[in-house]
What we know:
By secondary structure, the chain is of the alpha+beta class. It contains 5 helices and 5 strands, in the order ααββαββααβ. The protein has a single domain, classed as Alpha-Beta Plaits (2-Layer Sandwich). It has a 3-stranded mixed beta sheet with strand order 3-4-5. A two-stranded antiparallel sheet has the order 1-2. The protein is elongated. The C terminus is likely disordered.
Amino acid sequence: MAVNNDALTRATRALAHEPLLGWTQLSTAIMRRVRATARPGETILAFAADGGPSHDEHGSRLYIAERVLVAALRRATTTATAAPERIDIVMDDDRCAAVLIHLVGSWDTDLQDAAEQAHRLALVAVHEVLGADPGFVAERDLHVTITDVDDPGPPRADLV
Length: 160
């Protein structure tokens, strides 16, 4: 059977412009499962309201698992238009020295605003989980970077 090159060319072009429906949702589901797996991590010293190390009822210093902080940061900074792709905690001995949040935003989002909002929400999460560490300065130690821009979802029917 002879193949019409014009038809093949048109079909190839049409396929190249066809959106990969469902890929964004599939990749999001896969990454959610990967992030949910337990992984070893550091323990981070928690602080009391007065800025000193937090202690339990037996006088022992209180430590928080790194994954608890990462989970709180992920919950706090995930919105309908932006979400963390990766969250790194930098340790200095047993203290959290820095938080690095790599954010992915939708293409139709004000990315500067999304980063500023994520910064504010992340700072609240750090304080809620770790307490008032006087050595942690948000302007110096909390970094939010837009690392990717993603399709906001399936294409609108009026654009297909």
